[in-house]
Design brief:
Number of strands: 0
Mean pLDDT: 83
Order of helices and strands: HHHHHHHHHHHHHHHHHHHHHHHHH
Radius of gyration: 24 Å
Helix content: over 70%
Shape: globular
Oligomer: single chain
Largest sheet: none
Strand content: under 5%
Low-confidence stretches: 432-437
Structural class: mainly alpha
Distance between the termini: 68 Å
Length: 611
Amino acid sequence: MELLHTVDILIIALYLVTIIVIGLVLRKKAQQSKDDYLLGGKRIPWYLLGLSNASGMFDISGTIWLVTLMFVYGIKSAWVPWLWPVFNQIFLMVYLSKWLRRSNATTGAEWIGTRFGFGNGAKLSHIIVVVFALVVCLGYLAYGFIGLGKFVEIFIPWEFASNYIPFAIPPEYVPHFYGTIFTLFAVFYSLLGGMSGIVWADVVQFAIMTISAIVIGYLGWQAVGEFGVNVPKDWMNPFTGGLNLDWSNIIPEVTDKIKSDGYGVFTYFLFMMLFKGVLVSVAGPAPTYDMQKILSTKTPAEASKMSGFVSVILMPIRYLMIAGFAALALIYYDQLDLLNAAGHIDFELILPTAIKEFVPVGLLGLLLAGLIAAFMSTFAGTLNAAQAYLVNDIYLKYTKPNASQNQVKNMNYITGITVVVISIILGFFAENVNAILNIIVSVLYGSYVGANILKWHWWRFNGEGFFWGMVAGLVAAAIVPHLFPDVNALYLFPVLLIVSLIGSVIGTYSAPPTEAKVLKDFYKNVRPWGFWKPIHDQLAAENPNFKKNTDFGRDMFNVAIGIISQTALVILPMYLIFRQETPIYISLVVLVICSILLKKFWWNNLNQKLD
């Protein structure tokens, strides 16, 4: 049976042609300079960068996971993404994007020079950041590639596609074939158009997803009104009942899913998520596409606006779609085939199965084009970040500092193609390298937090401290989980953090402080709050009018209000789809109050002068 109508195929084809045109149109603009290619010349409006960043976060695997979470845990599923943590965008919005953009760096590794100078410690720090960024980028690219292929295979079975393909492919490699095809489209516009091409392709993608989300949300809302919904007690309440919901008399199979998730006692789980999430957020963005979008903004104030806009544009649209699909799946559960190849129920099949069952002709093509575009958006942004590190932080820094613009352009193409080829190869061997890459990525993330908090807030922290802090965290993250194999990794975070901080402090005092001029330039330009008194006193002696950053209290207030407003943006579309009138009004009131407070204490102070 053909799942795709001719109309659906034409819509997908039209999208693919559109992104090819975007790459061709923006090719000349991207070739003007290194900054034009990697950062869009720092001329792209903040709202387009924010929309692009939101588009990159609207990925297939994440959406599948979130639909499954809402189906099982209801409104309380709004808390689980704090594991990422989703509220890191609020810390970026309030102050970290502004601090990062003031450095005028091209990549996170280049930023190291503005903080630690160019001595041995800075070189070690620079190298470990580049390695971290490249491994994370390759991991994202490889698994996004194979994940997309498996998703597309559900809707374009090989029995159907083989009628149009003039060669045979072994069944086990069909997902890789699909993944390669769509990867090549993403490579085309990202290699030719650079950051500008990525942003404009993301604008098209987000417009598609917005239309799809509105229609899916309406279908779910209509079904709830017509048939109602049968869910456990406290499913509709985000604050009571915990995550151990009683599905035994409704859909007994969900009980096994809750046990396998292993989130445990909700209060402790939430506390640990908040503890880890705050520290990860304070550490700042990882050196991937999110950081590149921040560095691409025109000014520090626009960097903050861009990060804030991500939550405003992403949360309501994405959760309208998520809640719509969850409602349809709950109401028509008996019609869904959730059996995997092994004959077991797999709740992560809810999204693709619901799409096949409930999405009408035309909208199916639009929705698939949007989900394919979501993959391409994440892929292209990650590829751009990998290119930035290879070209800016290896080629121009160590190999050819005086390279011509033509040489830089060619190197951008070469590194981009190389990264893509490696990621596709990794994707082909995904089953074999899955455990290895997961360990590498989790180990590197485990080593990231302690050192990256200190780099912002402690003047004495130097390159050696940064390097040894990350190494200590890396070693701990490689060993500690094996010592406690039955403990959720979330609860091991404090141990990894303490080890990383010990390594950071010992490493810091093993070498002299960073050169005074570097510290003074960094503190004067970025103006962080924290333990910078000796540097502040030196600058104040040179300029009596110099003022330190006294905004810590206001920033933390804005962070708290921002997290509340972001959470309201998540649960509002959930309540809307499930027709819960009183919670809708309460959420709207909370959102209005938070908006007024943020306008007064955050937005109105964005252009505040440093001196």
